[in-house]
Every structure is written in C-alpha cells, then in structure tokens.
Design brief:
heterodimer; A: alpha/beta; three-stranded parallel sheet; 3 strands; B: alpha/beta; Heat Shock Protein 90; 2 domains; 24% strand
C-alpha cells in the first residue's frame, strides 16, 4: 500500500488562510487543488501532518476537507486521508465536525 | 439668439469653469511640493490606487464646507458625536457633493485608535471614490493626538509630516490595509506582540484564527457585488496596539461593507414584519451560537463565533466590541451581551478586541 506524508508547513505554508485562491495566496482551495488532491490521486493513502502551523481558520478547513467529502464522499475520505494534528485539538475537532456535516449534506 | 447658440455658450462656460478648478488644484499641488508646508490648510494629493469605474462628480464646483471633529473623538467614550462626524463627512462628499472640504482637527483633545482607523479609511475612500472633492485639513493642536495620527501615517495623506517625541500610552504595533486575505500580517502582529506579553500556543492560534477569519469574511461577504456603493471593494483596515500601563493588547479591524445584519439577514423569518428580529439579536446569535450564514448552509457560519472564541475566557479575558450598521454590541468573557442602538450608524463593521492574556493578567 502506497502512503504519502504531506508536511503542511514545509510543503505549503505555516500561516494558511482564506477560502478561495482569488482572495488569498495560501487558501484552502490552493492547498486542496495543488497539494492534497494530486497526492490522493497518486497514492493509496495520504497522511497530512498539520502540526506547526500558526492556526487553521474555519473557512480554510471547510474549503479543504468539506469539499473533498462533498466531491468524493465520506468513505473515500476516511479510507484515504489521515490527519495528524497534535498541537491544535480545537482544529482537529472542527475538522471532524466539518467532515460529519458535509457527509450529512451529501 | 438661437437655442443652439445658448447651448453652445453654456457648454463653453462649464468647460471654462472646469479648467479654472483644475488650474487651482495644480497651483495647490505645486505649493505643496515646493515645501510650503507651514500653512495649516493643506491640499490633498490623489492616491495611486486604481479608481472604481463609478466616479462621483461634484454637484456644485464652488461649494466649500468645514467639518469639525469633536473634542472627544472616541467610539468608546463618545460614539454619538464621533459617528455624527463621519455621517456629516459622508453626506457632504457623497450626497451634497461638496467640492472642497476642510476637516478641522484642532478641537480634538482625546482620540482612540478605532476612531483614528475609521478616519484614515474614510479619507482613503473619499480620495479614491470622489477624487474631485478636495480635502484639506487643519492640524491637531494636541500633541498626543497629532502623534497618534502621525504614527498611523494619516498626515502623510495630506502631504504633511511631523516629528514627535512624546510617549504615547497606546503603543502601535501594526497597521495594515489591503483587499486580499493576508495571514502573514496576523502572524507578524502576534510576533510583534510577543515583546510585551508571552503568548501560549493556544493563545496564538486563537488570535490567528479570529483575525484571518475577519479578513476572509470581508472577501466573501462584506461587499456583495449586487450592491453598487461608494466603497473600496474588499478593502479592510487593521491596527494592533498595546497599552503599557494596563498591560492590555487591542486589535481593531474595520471594513466599509454592508455590515453583519445586512449580509446575514437572508432568512424568511428575519424579514417578515411580525417575526422580524432586531439587528442586535441576529448579531448575538451569529456571534455566540454560529451557523448563521448568508448562504443558509449548515456547514457555513463558523467565522463569526471565532470572534467570540478569542475572549471566551479560556485564553484571554477582555471584551469584544462590534459596531455594525446601526448597532453596537459588546460581549465579555462571562457571555454577557450589551446591545446598543446607534443614532448615527456606521458604514461597514468595526471589530475591536481589548484583551488581557490570562497568563499575564
């Protein structure tokens, strides 16, 4: 089984923010399209190490993980994505909440 | 005389009048660049930012108005008079379309940074949206007031620079304005605040999320394109300052947008006459409970609760103050809510956090 590890701070930025690419350089849309989706397409499983960042605004998380659940489904997300976030438990709870709400919406 | 001839004469007269005004503007600018900065009445220069497509023409090219800023120019202590000043200024520029406005700063004795931030943003808006309106100023006499405005680069907008040596109680940490979400600015604020107080990791994260969320709300919701208004699209203004004596940090964020009630009042029950809730109630629900978004989606509306999360008592104590539309809402760490209806509304949303870090206080 092919697993890829994404180091969020090294591969993207330490201060993410913004929902869309048109309004922010390090937006959720940019991370999803440029980093996460290519990794998901090429690998069986992706570990996203999100430790070390300054913080994750809700709109950023919603755009990244909510859209993946919307487009690919909850089963795909649970099977392929693992999030490592030890230094920000609030954001981790928020990611789980976003994933749950988007899966219900679908 | 034929009608055609009269029309021709009228057109010629208007053209001459226009040229005369332009000539006056050029003379004023030349005076400024030649170093004639001793006068208190200083001419304005245009900003380099691209102008919006809709330009405002002055109704009466010879009209002049003097608008005096109140002695207590503060949103915390004298919100009525402070907002009345801004309302008068907007009225003169955008409704009466006065061609020359003198803003008299000489009476100001007390100023607070949020009011100063609003003054800067309003001046910027007038320069860009109403370039034909000539703004000039009478300088502030109080040295502390002058210094605060100097530090915020306000006098520079009138082509004037002063040097001050007095020590301000409110020490400016950061000022920024942009029409893009810039998380790097927030990172720098947190790094700069570290001189006066040591933040824990959750405190840093809390601040970061709250302020970046404000920026993103401005990008996504504050300036809806279906409204054609005299605003600088997606522009936000931010200042961060610390009070050395009180060991307090403050962050103030402002935009000229539609305001929180204007953007989230999309539900049917909020618009029916009998069931209609007040703006303050809607703001309270959106800020404290969340999931109250313009989009009406269950997955949205997470941004506004982040504003309150900062002061919820876990990492910081203090107060969140929200001026938006005709409402002023204050929230404290004990989940108490203090609504107030404003006589003179505010254009956009002004968010201020006055914070005492828990490990510091």
């Amino acid at each position: 089984m092919n697993t890829k590890r994404i180091n969020f701070v090294e591969d993207f930025t330490d201060c993410p923010g913004g929902r869309l690419r048109v309004t922010s350089e390090h937006s959720g849309e940019a991370f999803r399209e440029d980093v996460l989706l290519p990794a998901l397409n090429d690998n069986d499983r992706v570990e996203v190490d999100m430790n070390g960042a300054f913080g994750f605004p809700s709109s950023f998380l919603d755009e990244v993980f909510g859209k993946i659940v919307d487009n690919k489904g909850l089963a795909f997300f649970k099977e392929k994505v693992e999030i490592l976030l030890d230094d920000d438990p609030i954001s981790l709870i928020e990611i789980n909440d976003i994933v749950q709400k988007h899966s219900k919406r679908k | 005389m034929s009608n055609k001839y009269l029309k021709y004469r009228k057109k010629e007269f208007l053209l001459l009048n226009q040229r005369r005004i332009e000539k006056q503007h050029i003379i004023r600018r030349k005076k400024k660049y030649s170093g004639d900065a001793k006068r208190d009445y200083l001419p304005s220069s245009r900003l380099t930012r691209p102008e919006p497509s809709r330009k405002l023409r002055t109704k009466n090219p010879l009209s002049k108005k003097i608008i005096t800023i109140p002695r207590v120019f503060s949103l915390a202590e004298n919100s009525d008079e402070t907002l009345l000043f801004f309302s008068d200024l907007r009225d003169a520029v955008f409704k009466k379309r006065v061609s020359e406005i003198l803003i008299d700063h000489s009476a100001i004795g007390i100023i607070d940074p949020p009011a100063a931030l609003m003054l800067i943003s309003e001046t910027m808006r007038i320069r860009v949206c109403a370039p034909r309106c000539v703004l000039s100023c009478k300088l502030a006499e109080d040295s502390l007031v002058a210094e605060l405005l100097e530090k915020l680069d306000y006098w520079k907008m009138y082509g004037y620079r002063r040097n001050h040596n007095s020590e301000l109680n409110e020490q400016l940490v950061m000022k920024a304005t942009n029409n893009f979400t810039l998380p790097e600015v927030v990172k720098n604020i947190i790094v700069d605040f570290s001189d006066c107080c040591t933040f824990s990791v959750p405190q840093k994260k809390m601040l970061f999320k709250g302020i970046v969320e404000c920026m993103d709300n401005v990008m996504s919701h504050a300036y809806p394109s279906k409204f054609k208004r005299m605003w600088l699209k997606q522009q936000w203004w931010l200042i961060a300052y610390k009070n050395r004596t009180e060991r307090k940090i403050s962050i103030c964020f402002y935009d000229h947008g539609l305001g929180i009630p204007g953007t989230i009042r999309t539900r049917l029950r909020d618009n029916l006459i009998l069931l209609k809730r007040s703006d303050e109630d809607i703001i309270k629900e959106a800020v404290m409970s969340g999931c109250y978004s313009r989009t009406k989606l269950e997955t949205r509306g997470r941004g506004l609760p982040k504003l309150y999360d900062i002061i919820d008592g876990t990492e910081f104590s203090g107060e969140l103050s929200l001026f938006t539309g005709n409402s002023h809402c204050r929230f404290n760490e004990y989940q108490e809510f203090f609504p107030q209806r404003l006589t003179n509304g505010i254009h956009g949303t002004l968010i201020t956090w006055n914070l005492f870090p828990k490990n510091e206080h």
